[in-house]
Amino acid sequence: MKKPELLAPAGDFEKLKIAIEYGADAVYAGVSHFSLRCHSGKEFDYETFKEAVDYAHERGVKVYATVNSFPFENQLPLVESHIKKLKEIGVDAMIISTLGVIAKAKEIAPEIDIHLSTQANALNSWDYKAYRDFGVKRIIAARETSLKDLIKIKEKVPDVEIEIFVHGAMCFAYSGRCLLSAVQFGRNPNKGSCANDCRYPYVLYAENPETGTMFKMEEYEDGTYIMNAKDLCLIKHIPEILDAGVVDSLKIEGRTKAPYYVAVVTKAYRDAIDEYLSSGKCDCEKYYKEILTTKNRGLTDAYLVKRPYERDDTQNLETSLTHGEWQVSGVVTQEGDSFMCKYKTFPGDVVEILLPKNAKISPCENEIGKIWQEDGKWYLKFNKIVTKSGKELNAVHSGNQNPIMLPCKLPPLTFLRKKVEYSPNGV
């Protein structure tokens, strides 16, 4: 059975490191220029992006650069310069949406692979053949494509790699071709500055043109989230995706998501893939529950296994975001002897330890606290809160920049989390 690549988002250097530590085979990232996540791209400049690419390559992980916006005529010299810099940096591939940019990239950097962005909406074997003949190595399938169609496409165009989104935010518009925030805010979604207008509540009115009477159509007091798509989650379909044998890369969306999201989702898909490949079985429900610890808009398996017209459960009309069941308490530092607080921690608190892929730890106990394993999970109890400089605190809260000591060393980028209760309004 073919082992597909697991591709994770790297919105900044920290998230790139986390994606790698939690099991990604490749990551995608970019500087702000000509990327459809230009705000996350601002986390990188060319110098730090080069550092990140080198960091990934040293660990056997590929980096794909996003150049997938739709440039205007006056931007073409800047695109050309950008491609030249990506060539110097040594990225493994460029993700591109338009034929013109593909042609220029092949001219400037023929040694770098071209991946066709999902924004190009490739849906059938004619599209795949045409892009292949134009020099595209991999096509990121439109989110509206079904697995049955991908099987047929692979039969007809076997020499093109296929990448699919398996997890992350879904767009109300067809494969992301939207101008809603351009109309309302002057922020062009197809140039990476989407304002996420589809996530807002809207109030609808019905007007009788003959009488001028207008009726407010109310479903919820604060408006209705009529365009708010649920998040994609295909973790339960890992067996049939792998059985199909036509998908070369499984992609997780979320360059603007939190580091915890990157860790949890990457590890869940890594474990599900590895478990199924090694045993022919997948406890996918377990990994689905793990994913529910992250913030989401509700989860749907969208269109890979069902046609759009066959379902009506892909939208969340009640809220734009649902809190996960767990709150990140802290992230372990590179030294491994302390953590940076991300929530609030008091003496006596017990937190669960979320380890990177393949990390091993041992039980320990001292005056600072105790680490132990129970029912296959690792836990940490704090007897006292002590900063790295030796100061004892009554509590530590998010925003405190003092590293807090651990009872014993943990792997860098380990997450500490605890279950929390949220009120209905998400506070």
Q: Name the CATH superfamily classification of the largest domain.
A: Copper homeostasis (CutC) domain
For the report, how would you describe the main beta sheet? 8 strands, parallel, barrel
Q: Overall mean pLDDT score?
A: 88
| Strand arrangement across the biggest beta sheet | 1-2-3-4-5-6-7-11
Give the helix level as a range of percent.
25-40%
- In total, the number of strands is 24
At the third CATH level, what is the topology name of the largest domain? Answer: TIM Barrel
Number of helices: 11
What proportion of the residues form beta strands (DSSP E)? 15-25%
User: Class by helix and strand content?
Assistant: alpha/beta
CATH class of the largest domain: Alpha Beta
- The CATH architecture designation of the largest domain is Alpha-Beta Barrel
> Which geometry do the CA atoms define?
globular
List low-pLDDT spans: 423-427
Radius of gyration: 23 Å
Q: What is the CA–CA distance across the termini? A: 46 Å
Q: How many structurally independent domains? A: 3
